[in-house]
From TrEMBL:
This is Pirin family protein. Its cofactor is Fe cation. Belongs to the pirin family. Pfam families: Pirin, Pirin_C_2. Keywords: Iron, Metal-binding. Binds 1 Fe cation per subunit.
Length: 238
């Protein structure tokens, strides 16, 4: 389709470190493709599974908006701002790295893996004071509708970040149709199928497929099977 880019699940980069298995939609660390760096302000979309009791040791970030969405298991977070938290399915975590932070992410459970989406967006402001945000939501609130879980406004629904972006989650029964209207004209929309099969503006998508489009205003969805979707509206030019 014109003004679109399709990333099939099988086309993602992969990394296997034993304790960590990562499927990466965009270039990341040693996996590099100059034609697959980002989608607008969306720089990283990693689908990570960490073995029980393992995790990412203390490491730095700066000038990036970092979002974690657990899908299975529990993720423990600690950072140089003094935050200690556990994130579970039904929660979202956001950090503005700004002038610089150090943090660790570990599987809280010794006996079961944790799977989570690690997402990075370029910020619209550099060198801000680092901050941490975490919120929970009800799975029932996203049944057959898109639930906003992230925005640029502190007083809006979900966590907030320093970027003109909106994230929504939706769990749709087979055959259910839905629509999404862009918040800002000219933004792009990146759809990630967490599970199931969906039709998006006529394009068929399967589990873990990603689909970036630059619509004029409205996008139409139809769940072909019971389907869970993450949609990310981000600035196109970055």
């Amino acid at each position: 389709m014109k003004n679109s880019i399709l990333h099939r699940s099988a086309s993602r980069f992969s990394a296997d470190h034993g304790w960590l298995k990562s499927a990466q939609t965009f270039s990341f660390h040693g996996n590099y493709d100059p034609d697959r760096i980002q989608f607008g302000a969306l720089r990283v979309l990693n689908d990570d599974t960490v073995n029980g009791g393992k995790g990412f040791g203390r490491h730095p970030h700066d000038n990036m908006e970092i979002i974690s969405i657990p899908l299975e298991g529990t993720l423990e977070h600690q950072d140089s701002m003094g935050n200690v938290a556990v994130i579970r399915p039904g929660e979202i975590q956001a950090m503005s790295a700004g002038t610089g932070i150090y943090h660790t992410e570990f599987n809280k459970n010794e006996n079961e893996p944790v799977t989570f989406l690690q997402i990075w967006l370029y910020p619209d402001k550099l060198n801000v004071v680092p901050r941490y945000d975490q919120q929970s939501y009800s799975h029932g609130d996203r049944h057959n509708r898109f639930l906003q879980i992230l925005s640029p406004e502190p007083d809006d629904e979900g966590v907030w970040i320093n970027q003109n972006a909106w994230f929504h989650l939706g769990d749709f029964d087979e055959g259910t149709a839905a629509e999404y209207d862009l918040k800002v004209a000219g933004n792009g929309l990146y759809i990630f199928v967490i599970s199931g099969e969906a039709e998006v503006n006529g394009q068929m998508l399967n589990t873990r497929d990603g689909y970036g489009i630059w619509p004029e205003s409205r996008v139409s969805f139809r769940a072909v099977t019971d389907t869970s979707l993450l949609i990310m509206e981000v600035p196109e030019k970055w």
